[in-house]
């Protein structure tokens, strides 16, 4: 959650949003805060996660 954000600030933002949305036990709110979009767009992380490697000799089938 917000990897490079100060925890106190992240909590303040979450608390203000849940108050704005009038959250309560009868009206729960789930905050989904993906860390990957904090610093870069998702495609940057996707590009890092997979590598394609050729394992067969060239020209063989």
Automatic annotation (TrEMBL):
What InterPro entries would the database entry show?
Aldolase_TIM (IPR013785)
Which superkingdom, per the lineage? Bacteria
Gene3D superfamilies, per the entry: Aldolase class I
> Could you identify this protein by its name?
Uncharacterized protein
Organism listed in the record: Nonomuraea maheshkhaliensis
């Amino acid at each position: 959650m917000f990897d490079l954000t100060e925890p106190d600030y992240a909590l303040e933002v979450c608390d203000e949003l849940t108050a704005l949305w009038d959250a309560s036990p009868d009206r729960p709110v789930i905050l989904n805060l993906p860390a990957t979009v904090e610093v870069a767009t998702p495609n940057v992380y996707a590009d890092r996660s997979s590598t394609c490697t050729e394992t067969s000799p060239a020209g063989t089938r």
